[in-house]
Amino acid sequence: MTAVTPVATGKPDGRARAGASPSSGRNGLVLVNYGTSVLVEDDAGCLYRCVVRRNLWHIVSGDRVAWESVGTQEGIIKAVEPRHTVLQRADSANRTRALAANIDQILIVAAPQPAHDAFLIDRYLVAAELTGATPLVVINKSDLLDPQVADTLTDNLQEYASIGYVILLMSARENNGIDMLAQALVNRTSILVGQSGVGKSSLINRLLPELDIQIGKLSDASGQGRHTTTTTTLYHLPQGGELIDSPGVRDFRLGETAPADLARGFREFRPYLGMCRFQDCRHLSEPDCAVKEAMRKGAVSERRLASYRQLVNGMPATGS
Ligand SMILES: Nc1nc2c(ncn2[C@@H]2O[C@H](COP(=O)(O)OP(=O)(O)OP(=O)(O)O)[C@@H](O)[C@H]2O)c(=O)[nH]1
Ligand SMILES: [Mg+2]
Ligand SMILES: [Zn+2]
Fold first, then answer.
1. How many CB atoms lie under 10 A from the CB of residue 107?
2. ∠ CA(164), CA(132), CA(181), 5° rounding?
3. Is the CB of 319 under 6 A from ligand 1?
4. CA of 38 to the centre of ligand 3 (A)
5. Would you say 186 and 168 are in contact if contact means Cβ atoms under 8 Å apart?
6. Among 117, 242, 253, 131, residue whose Cα is nearest residue 192
7. How many Cβ atoms are within 10 Å of 191's Cβ, its own excluded?
Protein backbone atom coordinates (compact mmCIF):
# COMPACT_ATOMS: atom_id res chain seq x y z
CA MET A 1 0.00 0.00 0.00
CA THR A 2 1.32 3.42 -0.94
CA ALA A 3 1.60 5.91 1.89
CA VAL A 4 -0.13 9.23 1.40
CA THR A 5 2.49 11.94 1.03
CA PRO A 6 2.08 14.44 3.84
CA VAL A 7 1.33 17.72 2.13
CA ALA A 8 0.50 20.60 4.43
CA THR A 9 -2.71 22.12 3.22
CA GLY A 10 -2.58 25.40 5.08
CA LYS A 11 -5.73 24.32 6.89
CA PRO A 12 -5.75 24.51 10.69
CA ASP A 13 -4.41 20.99 11.27
CA GLY A 14 -2.03 21.33 8.31
CA ARG A 15 -1.79 17.59 7.77
CA ALA A 16 -3.33 14.91 5.64
CA ARG A 17 -6.25 13.23 7.33
CA ALA A 18 -7.06 9.58 6.89
CA GLY A 19 -9.56 8.80 4.17
CA ALA A 20 -13.24 8.30 4.81
CA SER A 21 -14.99 4.99 4.21
CA PRO A 22 -14.62 3.70 0.65
CA SER A 23 -17.30 4.65 -1.81
CA SER A 24 -17.40 5.14 -5.53
CA GLY A 25 -17.93 8.20 -7.73
CA ARG A 26 -16.23 10.95 -5.76
CA ASN A 27 -15.05 14.38 -6.77
CA GLY A 28 -11.74 15.93 -5.87
CA LEU A 29 -9.04 18.48 -6.56
CA VAL A 30 -5.59 17.48 -7.84
CA LEU A 31 -2.84 18.93 -5.62
CA VAL A 32 0.26 17.25 -7.10
CA ASN A 33 0.99 15.12 -10.15
CA TYR A 34 3.71 12.49 -9.62
CA GLY A 35 3.48 11.03 -13.13
CA THR A 36 1.58 7.78 -12.86
CA SER A 37 -0.21 8.88 -9.72
CA VAL A 38 -1.62 12.12 -8.31
CA LEU A 39 -2.49 13.45 -4.87
CA VAL A 40 -6.19 14.23 -4.73
CA GLU A 41 -8.07 16.12 -2.03
CA ASP A 42 -11.74 15.31 -1.58
CA ASP A 43 -14.35 17.88 -0.60
CA ALA A 44 -13.82 17.08 3.10
CA GLY A 45 -10.10 17.89 2.84
CA CYS A 46 -8.88 14.26 2.99
CA LEU A 47 -5.93 13.33 0.78
CA TYR A 48 -5.68 10.26 -1.43
CA ARG A 49 -2.96 8.95 -3.69
CA CYS A 50 -4.73 8.04 -6.92
CA VAL A 51 -3.49 6.01 -9.83
CA VAL A 52 -3.79 7.65 -13.23
CA ARG A 53 -4.39 5.58 -16.33
CA ARG A 54 -2.25 6.40 -19.34
CA ASN A 55 -5.03 8.22 -21.20
CA LEU A 56 -5.30 10.73 -18.33
CA TRP A 57 -1.61 11.36 -17.75
CA HIS A 58 -2.03 15.00 -18.66
CA ILE A 59 -3.95 15.88 -15.50
CA VAL A 60 -2.27 18.55 -13.39
CA SER A 61 -2.52 20.59 -10.18
CA GLY A 62 -5.81 22.45 -10.14
CA ASP A 63 -7.73 19.86 -12.14
CA ARG A 64 -11.09 18.74 -10.76
CA VAL A 65 -11.46 15.01 -11.13
CA ALA A 66 -13.93 12.19 -10.62
CA TRP A 67 -12.30 9.24 -8.86
CA GLU A 68 -13.12 6.01 -7.14
CA SER A 69 -11.59 4.87 -3.88
CA VAL A 70 -9.70 1.62 -3.52
CA GLY A 71 -8.84 0.93 0.09
CA THR A 72 -8.82 3.77 2.60
CA GLN A 73 -6.28 6.21 1.21
CA GLU A 74 -5.95 5.27 -2.42
CA GLY A 75 -8.02 5.61 -5.53
CA ILE A 76 -8.23 5.56 -9.30
CA ILE A 77 -8.94 8.60 -11.43
CA LYS A 78 -11.96 8.10 -13.66
CA ALA A 79 -12.37 11.42 -15.46
CA VAL A 80 -11.22 15.03 -15.57
CA GLU A 81 -13.69 17.91 -15.55
CA PRO A 82 -13.43 20.49 -18.36
CA ARG A 83 -10.96 23.25 -17.45
CA HIS A 84 -11.82 26.92 -17.53
CA THR A 85 -8.16 27.87 -17.99
CA VAL A 86 -4.92 25.96 -18.50
CA LEU A 87 -1.32 27.12 -18.39
CA GLN A 88 0.65 25.08 -20.87
CA ARG A 89 4.04 25.07 -22.48
CA ALA A 90 5.66 23.27 -25.39
CA ASP A 91 8.53 20.84 -24.89
CA SER A 92 11.60 20.70 -27.15
CA ALA A 93 9.68 18.49 -29.61
CA ASN A 94 6.95 21.15 -29.67
CA ARG A 95 4.41 18.97 -27.88
CA THR A 96 2.13 20.96 -25.64
CA ARG A 97 2.03 20.02 -21.95
CA ALA A 98 -0.29 21.37 -19.30
CA LEU A 99 1.38 22.82 -16.18
CA ALA A 100 -1.66 23.78 -14.10
CA ALA A 101 -5.41 24.02 -14.61
CA ASN A 102 -8.29 26.25 -13.56
CA ILE A 103 -6.07 29.12 -12.52
CA ASP A 104 -7.42 32.66 -12.21
CA GLN A 105 -4.07 34.42 -11.87
CA ILE A 106 -0.53 33.87 -13.08
CA LEU A 107 2.08 35.48 -10.84
CA ILE A 108 5.14 36.02 -13.02
CA VAL A 109 8.00 36.29 -10.53
CA ALA A 110 11.25 38.04 -11.41
CA ALA A 111 14.09 39.46 -9.30
CA PRO A 112 17.26 41.51 -9.60
CA GLN A 113 19.07 38.19 -9.15
CA PRO A 114 19.05 36.02 -11.23
CA ALA A 115 18.89 38.82 -13.80
CA HIS A 116 15.39 39.31 -15.12
CA ASP A 117 14.51 38.33 -18.67
CA ALA A 118 11.88 40.61 -20.21
CA PHE A 119 11.28 38.26 -23.16
CA LEU A 120 10.46 35.44 -20.71
CA ILE A 121 8.02 37.74 -18.91
CA ASP A 122 6.46 38.62 -22.28
CA ARG A 123 5.92 34.94 -23.10
CA TYR A 124 4.19 34.32 -19.77
CA LEU A 125 2.04 37.41 -20.34
CA VAL A 126 0.95 36.05 -23.73
CA ALA A 127 0.15 32.64 -22.21
CA ALA A 128 -1.94 34.34 -19.51
CA GLU A 129 -3.78 36.58 -21.97
CA LEU A 130 -4.62 33.69 -24.28
CA THR A 131 -5.94 31.38 -21.57
CA GLY A 132 -7.91 34.14 -19.84
CA ALA A 133 -6.01 34.22 -16.52
CA THR A 134 -4.98 37.57 -15.04
CA PRO A 135 -1.21 38.06 -15.04
CA LEU A 136 0.53 39.92 -12.20
CA VAL A 137 4.21 40.80 -12.37
CA VAL A 138 5.87 40.14 -9.00
CA ILE A 139 9.34 41.58 -8.43
CA ASN A 140 10.90 39.81 -5.46
CA LYS A 141 14.22 40.54 -3.70
CA SER A 142 13.61 44.29 -3.61
CA ASP A 143 16.34 44.26 -0.94
CA LEU A 144 18.85 43.56 -3.74
CA LEU A 145 17.79 46.44 -5.96
CA ASP A 146 20.96 48.47 -6.37
CA PRO A 147 20.78 51.58 -8.57
CA GLN A 148 22.40 49.90 -11.60
CA VAL A 149 19.98 46.96 -11.78
CA ALA A 150 17.10 49.19 -10.79
CA ASP A 151 17.49 51.25 -13.97
CA THR A 152 16.81 48.48 -16.52
CA LEU A 153 14.30 46.79 -14.30
CA THR A 154 12.44 50.04 -13.73
CA ASP A 155 12.35 50.74 -17.47
CA ASN A 156 10.76 47.34 -18.11
CA LEU A 157 8.37 47.71 -15.20
CA GLN A 158 7.21 51.09 -16.43
CA GLU A 159 6.57 49.56 -19.82
CA TYR A 160 4.37 46.85 -18.24
CA ALA A 161 2.60 49.29 -15.93
CA SER A 162 1.87 51.65 -18.84
CA ILE A 163 -0.01 48.90 -20.68
CA GLY A 164 -2.09 48.10 -17.62
CA TYR A 165 -0.33 45.24 -15.86
CA VAL A 166 -0.20 45.21 -12.07
CA ILE A 167 3.35 45.16 -10.67
CA LEU A 168 4.00 44.10 -7.08
CA LEU A 169 7.40 44.83 -5.56
CA MET A 170 8.42 42.80 -2.50
CA SER A 171 11.09 41.02 -0.53
CA ALA A 172 10.47 37.57 0.87
CA ARG A 173 13.67 37.91 2.86
CA GLU A 174 12.67 41.16 4.56
CA ASN A 175 8.98 40.31 4.68
CA ASN A 176 8.14 43.43 2.68
CA GLY A 177 5.07 43.64 0.48
CA ILE A 178 3.82 40.18 1.50
CA ASP A 179 0.50 41.54 2.86
CA MET A 180 -0.17 43.14 -0.51
CA LEU A 181 0.52 39.82 -2.21
CA ALA A 182 -1.73 37.97 0.25
CA GLN A 183 -4.58 40.35 -0.55
CA ALA A 184 -4.20 39.78 -4.27
CA LEU A 185 -4.58 36.03 -3.72
CA VAL A 186 -7.78 35.89 -1.66
CA ASN A 187 -10.41 33.50 -3.04
CA ARG A 188 -8.55 32.95 -6.30
CA THR A 189 -6.43 30.16 -7.68
CA SER A 190 -3.00 31.53 -8.54
CA ILE A 191 0.26 30.03 -9.77
CA LEU A 192 3.81 31.28 -9.20
CA VAL A 193 6.00 30.96 -12.30
CA GLY A 194 9.41 32.26 -13.33
CA GLN A 195 13.11 31.47 -13.41
CA SER A 196 14.71 29.20 -10.85
CA GLY A 197 15.98 31.08 -7.80
CA VAL A 198 13.75 34.16 -8.00
CA GLY A 199 12.11 33.21 -4.69
CA LYS A 200 8.78 31.58 -5.58
CA SER A 201 8.97 29.01 -2.77
CA SER A 202 10.30 31.66 -0.36
CA LEU A 203 7.13 33.69 -1.04
CA ILE A 204 4.98 30.62 -0.32
CA ASN A 205 6.89 30.15 2.94
CA ARG A 206 6.01 33.70 3.93
CA LEU A 207 2.35 33.19 3.07
CA LEU A 208 2.17 29.77 4.76
CA PRO A 209 4.85 29.93 7.46
CA GLU A 210 3.88 26.58 8.99
CA LEU A 211 4.73 24.86 5.75
CA ASP A 212 8.52 25.40 5.75
CA ILE A 213 9.26 24.35 2.16
CA GLN A 214 12.95 23.82 1.64
CA ILE A 215 14.24 26.60 -0.54
CA GLY A 216 17.07 26.88 -3.01
CA LYS A 217 20.39 28.53 -2.36
CA LEU A 218 21.45 30.52 -5.40
CA SER A 219 24.90 31.33 -4.08
CA ASP A 220 25.79 27.78 -3.03
CA ALA A 221 28.64 27.13 -5.44
CA SER A 222 28.99 23.45 -4.49
CA GLY A 223 25.42 22.85 -5.56
CA GLN A 224 24.81 21.06 -2.29
CA GLY A 225 21.94 22.16 -0.17
CA ARG A 226 19.95 23.31 -3.18
CA HIS A 227 16.26 22.72 -2.82
CA THR A 228 15.00 23.72 -6.15
CA THR A 229 11.32 22.88 -6.55
CA THR A 230 10.76 19.78 -8.67
CA THR A 231 7.00 19.23 -8.52
CA THR A 232 4.12 21.58 -9.09
CA THR A 233 2.07 21.67 -5.87
CA LEU A 234 -1.20 23.30 -4.90
CA TYR A 235 -1.55 24.80 -1.40
CA HIS A 236 -4.61 26.26 0.31
CA LEU A 237 -4.19 29.74 1.71
CA PRO A 238 -5.49 30.48 5.22
CA GLN A 239 -7.53 33.49 4.09
CA GLY A 240 -9.17 31.55 1.23
CA GLY A 241 -7.76 30.82 -2.19
CA GLU A 242 -5.22 28.42 -3.65
CA LEU A 243 -1.60 29.01 -4.56
CA ILE A 244 0.42 26.71 -6.80
CA ASP A 245 4.24 26.57 -6.57
CA SER A 246 5.99 25.45 -9.74
CA PRO A 247 9.57 24.48 -10.62
CA GLY A 248 11.71 27.28 -12.03
CA VAL A 249 12.30 27.42 -15.76
CA ARG A 250 15.16 28.50 -17.98
CA ASP A 251 12.92 28.73 -20.98
CA PHE A 252 9.17 28.89 -21.45
CA ARG A 253 7.96 27.94 -24.91
CA LEU A 254 4.48 28.75 -26.00
CA GLY A 255 2.77 25.95 -27.87
CA GLU A 256 2.13 26.41 -31.56
CA THR A 257 0.19 29.67 -31.80
CA ALA A 258 -1.02 31.48 -34.92
CA PRO A 259 0.35 35.03 -35.42
CA ALA A 260 -3.16 36.50 -35.03
CA ASP A 261 -3.42 34.90 -31.59
CA LEU A 262 0.09 35.96 -30.61
CA ALA A 263 -0.80 39.54 -31.57
CA ARG A 264 -3.89 39.39 -29.30
CA GLY A 265 -1.59 38.18 -26.52
CA PHE A 266 0.16 41.57 -26.63
CA ARG A 267 -2.66 43.54 -25.07
CA GLU A 268 -1.47 46.98 -26.22
CA PHE A 269 -1.63 45.84 -29.88
CA ARG A 270 -5.37 45.18 -29.69
CA PRO A 271 -6.65 48.67 -30.60
CA TYR A 272 -4.66 48.41 -33.87
CA LEU A 273 -5.53 44.85 -34.89
CA GLY A 274 -7.74 44.79 -37.98
CA MET A 275 -6.52 48.25 -39.01
CA CYS A 276 -3.55 47.18 -41.14
CA ARG A 277 -3.73 47.37 -44.95
CA PHE A 278 -3.74 43.58 -45.22
CA GLN A 279 -6.32 41.60 -43.30
CA ASP A 280 -3.80 38.85 -42.60
CA CYS A 281 -0.97 41.27 -41.73
CA ARG A 282 1.51 39.58 -39.40
CA HIS A 283 3.03 42.94 -38.40
CA LEU A 284 6.46 41.90 -39.62
CA SER A 285 7.49 43.86 -42.72
CA GLU A 286 4.16 44.38 -44.45
CA PRO A 287 3.40 47.92 -45.72
CA ASP A 288 0.85 50.10 -43.92
CA CYS A 289 0.93 48.09 -40.74
CA ALA A 290 -1.08 49.78 -37.99
CA VAL A 291 0.93 48.11 -35.21
CA LYS A 292 4.21 49.33 -36.70
CA GLU A 293 2.68 52.78 -37.07
CA ALA A 294 1.62 52.67 -33.41
CA MET A 295 5.22 51.88 -32.51
CA ARG A 296 6.45 54.86 -34.55
CA LYS A 297 4.07 57.08 -32.61
CA GLY A 298 5.26 55.64 -29.31
CA ALA A 299 2.01 53.85 -28.42
CA VAL A 300 3.66 50.40 -28.69
CA SER A 301 7.19 49.84 -27.39
CA GLU A 302 9.91 48.81 -29.79
CA ARG A 303 11.02 46.09 -27.41
CA ARG A 304 7.55 44.55 -27.16
CA LEU A 305 7.09 44.58 -30.93
CA ALA A 306 10.50 42.89 -31.25
CA SER A 307 9.36 40.24 -28.71
CA TYR A 308 6.21 39.59 -30.71
CA ARG A 309 8.21 39.25 -33.94
CA GLN A 310 10.67 36.88 -32.31
CA LEU A 311 7.74 34.69 -31.28
CA VAL A 312 6.17 34.71 -34.76
CA ASN A 313 9.50 33.89 -36.37
CA GLY A 314 10.16 31.12 -33.85
CA MET A 315 6.86 29.31 -34.50
CA PRO A 316 6.89 26.24 -36.74
CA ALA A 317 5.87 27.01 -40.33
CA THR A 318 2.45 25.37 -39.86
CA GLY A 319 1.65 27.98 -37.20
CA SER A 320 1.19 30.76 -39.76
N1 LIG B 1 18.05 38.67 -0.99
C2 LIG B 1 16.94 37.95 -1.11
N3 LIG B 1 17.03 36.62 -1.33
C4 LIG B 1 15.87 35.93 -1.44
C5 LIG B 1 14.60 36.53 -1.37
N6 LIG B 1 13.66 35.58 -1.57
C7 LIG B 1 14.33 34.41 -1.76
N8 LIG B 1 15.67 34.61 -1.68
C9 LIG B 1 16.73 33.62 -1.83
O10 LIG B 1 16.74 33.17 -3.18
C11 LIG B 1 17.12 31.79 -3.25
C12 LIG B 1 16.11 31.00 -4.08
O13 LIG B 1 14.86 31.00 -3.42
P14 LIG B 1 13.70 29.96 -3.77
O15 LIG B 1 12.50 30.40 -2.99
O16 LIG B 1 14.15 28.56 -3.62
O17 LIG B 1 13.49 30.24 -5.33
P18 LIG B 1 12.49 29.51 -6.33
O19 LIG B 1 12.01 30.55 -7.27
O20 LIG B 1 11.47 28.74 -5.59
O21 LIG B 1 13.49 28.52 -7.10
P22 LIG B 1 13.08 27.14 -7.88
O23 LIG B 1 12.33 26.29 -6.92
O24 LIG B 1 14.40 26.57 -8.27
O25 LIG B 1 12.27 27.56 -9.06
C26 LIG B 1 17.24 31.33 -1.78
O27 LIG B 1 18.60 31.35 -1.41
C28 LIG B 1 16.45 32.36 -1.02
O29 LIG B 1 16.90 32.49 0.31
C30 LIG B 1 14.54 37.95 -1.14
O31 LIG B 1 13.50 38.59 -1.05
N32 LIG B 1 15.75 38.60 -1.03
MG1 LIG C 1 10.94 26.76 -5.59
ZN1 LIG D 1 0.10 44.89 -39.22
1. 26
2. 55
3. no
4. 45
5. no
6. 242
7. 26
